[in-house]
Input
Amino acid sequence: MKTLVDPANALVRGLSAIRTEFHVPQGFAPEILAAADAAAARVPDAHADRTALPFVTLDPASSTDLDQAFTIEAAGSDLLLHYAIADIGWFVRDGDPVDIEAWERGTTLYLPDGKAPLYPPVLSQGAASLLPDGPRPAIIFTVRVAPDGGVRLDGAERALIRSRAKLAYDSVTEAELPPGFAELSRRIAEAEAARGAARVDPPEQEVERLAEGGYTLRFRPRLQSEEQNSALSLATNMAVADAMIAHHTGLFRVMGRPSPKSVDRLRHEAGALGIDWPADQPLESLERSLDPADARHAAFMLAIRRAGDGASYMPWREDQAPWHSAVAAAYAHATAPLRRLADRYVVETVLAIANGRPVPDAAQAAFAKLPRVMARADARSGQIERAVIDLAEAVMLQGREGERFEAVVTDVDPRGARIRLCGQPIVARIAATDVGPGDRLTLRLSEADPGRRTLTFDTA
Output
C-alpha cells in the first residue's frame, strides 16, 4: 500500500471536479434537515422489546450507517439467524421531504473524501443506525438455516434491540462473534456450491483516505470476515425473496449468465492467461476455484464480470420467475435500507407478509418505478467510482512520463486493450488490437493528466 504523492493537491481538486461533474449532492436543503430532525424524534412505540438478545454489528471500522445487526441460536440441527435491519421506514413517511429527496438520490454515493448519504445523517448515522449506544428500532428477520444450507423465513417483527459491540472486519476475533457464526457461513457456502452458484468477487480497485493524511490506491481482496458476514446477508435476502415469490409480489435483484458466445471467448482468455479449464468443466465450477490473490486469476475474474449483462431490478411478474445467476437462486435486496432506496420497500413488504397483513399500497406502487430509479442511481455510482480511480491513477503516475512499465493484457474489445501494470494497482487502456488476454507488454508512459483523468501509454 503506497501513499499517493500529490504535492499539487491534484487529487483534492479532482475530487471536487468529480462532485461537480456528476452532481453529487452537497448536504441537504434546510427543509429536509428540519423534517429529518422531526422524524428522528419519533418514539418507537410499535416495537417488541428484544434488547435481551446479544446482537452485534460487523462492518468496516469507520462505518456509522449500520444497516444490520445479528445474533444466532441453535434450534435442534438448524440455526436461527436473527438478522436485525435498520428500521428507516419507521422514521421516513411516504411523500415527506426526506422521502422525496431519497427518491432523487436512490443510493448513498461514496467518494474518498466523504459520502453523500441517501438519508440525512441525523437518521442514517444517528436515530436509525444500529449503533451500540442504546436501544435502537429495527426489523428482525428470523431466518432458519438447515444443515444443508437451505433457508426459510420464520418471522419478521418490529423490535427494539441493543447492539453489544461494533465489530470491524479487519480486527474482529472469533471469540467476539456469536456462536454458530462460522458454521452458518459454512452451510451457506456449501449450499452455494451445491446449487452451482458463482458468487466470486475479484479484488476491488479503490482509493482510500488515510488517517494520517493523503490517499492510497490499491487492489483490496475481501477479508475472510467480510466473506463470512456476507453469507448472513445472502441467507436473509434469499429467504426474503422466497417469501415474496410465495405471495406474488416484491422487487428482485436479477442477473443472467454470460451467453455461449461469451463463454467461448472466456475459454480463449483462460488459455492465454495459463489457466487450466477442462472442456467438460462448467464455468461456475471454474469460478469457485479461482484465487483473487493470483494476478492471472484476478484478471480472469474481471473478464467474467464483464462478460455478463450485469445485475438489475425486476418487480414480480407472473410470466417470468426472478433469477440471479451468480447466486443460482431467487434473490432480493433487503439488508441495506440506509444506503439503498429499494430495500426500504422490500423490508416493509416482507414485514406485512410475515404478519398476515396486506402489502402496503405505497410499496406495490414503488415496485413498478424502482427499477428505473435504481438503474439511474447505480449508473451514477459506477461512473463516480471509475472517475475516482482514473483520477488517482493519473496522480500516482504524474511526473513519471517516459518511464517504462511491464503490463499484462486482461481484455480486448473494439476500443483497444485493457491492461494491468505489473506491481502497480493500476488498470488502463491502450490503443492496441493485435494483442490478446495474457500477453505481457512493455509500455512507455507518454502522459499522465489528472485534469482529464487520463493515462496514455505507447508500446515500447
Remarks:
- The chain is about 35% helix and 25% strand.
- The first strand starts at residue 2 and ends at 3.
- The radius of gyration is 23 Å.
- The mean pLDDT is 91.
